[in-house]
């Protein structure tokens, strides 16, 4: 050893002298060597480069720079054929009772200490493990089947060979593919938005599957593709995308797109459409796949299946542990007693003594040890294995009854309750604390118009309240058509007619919904076909008689003033408030209007003046004001369309027929979505809203024939029963946010040519802004 140590020291000294001759310090040389080695190590790239796949369709797979990225095939199963048995047994041995029973069964195979037939002792343990394994295997098979359904869903991918979009399975989508998305389709991957049919180059998506929020969110086309005058052509795309690597942050996306000219445009989260979201209110959109499969943000937030243990199982583990402690204490007492009893005999052999395997006498200590193990087998009933067998059987039966329970059947989706975790069914209904925001995430999020107040006058809408109560009653009682029609309460003729129509419509809706598909992926596609927030409960508003009379009175008064060319200032203030109220309901929103025979598309903006010339011939004075300002203190006359000094008048419309009363103009409510296609009458408008409250207010205004008929980027067209169609120039929109707690639109009124602000929002924010008209303060 000393010689070896001396030899190594000699070598180190020689190397040090050699380095000293070269003028280098050994420590510095070593550090520089390590530094050179670090420099040779390639630097890890923190970004992802995405090229268009159509540029490499004819090339070999090795030449495609996107070849190393994950494909779009997903797999959420927990087991494979080889890993099922060891992995499942490992998970089952987390239950302390299973470890105990296996130990007892193996101990019973020892000839010296066995107390029962070994094969019989093993049967209950094998039964418990087998039942649980079969249950876990069935649960994993359902995941596999769900994966297959999702992987085999269709989407449109651009093919360079065919020069068109062709249908492909989701699993065949790759990073760099161009995808065409249509309204109500589910996104197959994380897609960068490059084109949209929306005039504002927006795409509305529903992210309920990601964050549980039902309100629609806006995504915008990449800035460099914003000014395209024609449809997006993938063959003309020549950009390269540099973005961050896949991560699970849903609210972050950074990158840039490099054009052939070298110009770079930044990319943000507003340009990215996430997998699992649904396209809403947008006829068509085109994008390029950035992340696919398990690299999408939705899949990265999915930690995969894990073994779940119920609260009952965790409590049983604790109880079994204490039972084992008691069992060991009992066996210890028995073993000590047996050892003392054997020690009393000394060299004499006691009666019924157990010999050793060699046939010799056992010492008191060895005899006590053998008896200790034997008593464990004898006292094993302290932990009843039959209890665990019964629990497994009860769980299977409970899952069956949960699936067959008609009280848990949902008619809207035509589906029963799905029990996805079969081993935690006993936790159902055992929640003690619920963490929810103040808006009530656990509600259905259905905003229904109930009543309103205009200028301090409340309109209760009693008939509408009875209609809503009838909807709730029908949903809760699950009665058939004949029983409903036979038990309708007696009301006046109008209400009875409304109620009967509601009943028939509801049952027609239910009959359509019962024919839906039960496959989860296909059912999601079918359910997404209807317009958001457009159920009959939300659309069919029963007008209030008093408010309806006010609207009819306003229509008659406006017709009279138009016939006699009287100033609009003579309109009574209560009628002016009615007009202001319905205009605010109609235009103070972001609702998009479309129809089956004329979908929303890029439309050239028509000037407000040209529309006005076709609708109204109005003589405007220089001092005219807006609809809602400068109310007189006595409120004897209205400043709805002008101030008292204004000379604006209403003239006859050459192209307009004499107005009819609203009571004669109500038509049938459009039929519901039948699960296959829109089957609406020609001219029937549908409203596509970002939130349910906006849809409810627009439908409420339409019930009084104050309809929103068109929306362009800088223009909103409404139809009023007393004025016909009016086009408001939309100057600016202040969206709703948590700070202001209100939304405002700034418009130029077509009759007064004055700038007007309409606002809606929470009562806590709006009420503080309301001031009496005699304060003299201007807003």
Automatic annotation (TrEMBL):
Biased composition (Low complexity): 622-650
Biased composition (Basic residues): 32-43
Catalytic activity: ATP + H2O + phospholipidSide 1 = ADP + phosphate + phospholipidSide 2
Matching NCBIfam families: ATPase-Plipid (TIGR01652)
Pfam families: PhoLip_ATPase_N
Extent of Polar residues compositional bias: 495-509
EC number(s) per entry: 7.6.2.1
Cellular component per GO, a single term: plasma membrane
Assigned keywords, A-Z: ATP-binding, Magnesium, Membrane, Metal-binding, Nucleotide-binding, Translocase, Transmembrane, Transmembrane helix
UniProt: Mg(2+) binding residues: 437, 439
Stated name of the protein: Phospholipid-transporting ATPase
PANTHER family the UniProt entry points to: PHOSPHOLIPID-TRANSPORTING ATPASE VA (PTHR24092:SF81), PROBABLE PHOSPHOLIPID-TRANSPORTING ATPASE (PTHR24092)
Compositionally biased region (Basic and acidic residues): 652-663
Domain of life, per lineage: Eukaryota
Residues holding ATP: 437-439, 694, 736, 760
Positions of region (Disordered): 28-47, 475-524, 622-668
P-type ATPase N-terminal domain mapped to chain residues: 62-119
GO biological process: phospholipid translocation
Membrane topology: Multi-pass membrane protein
Any one GO molecular-function label of the UniProt entry: magnesium ion binding
Enzyme class, broadest EC rank: translocase
Cofactor: Mg(2+)
Compartments reported by the entry: Membrane
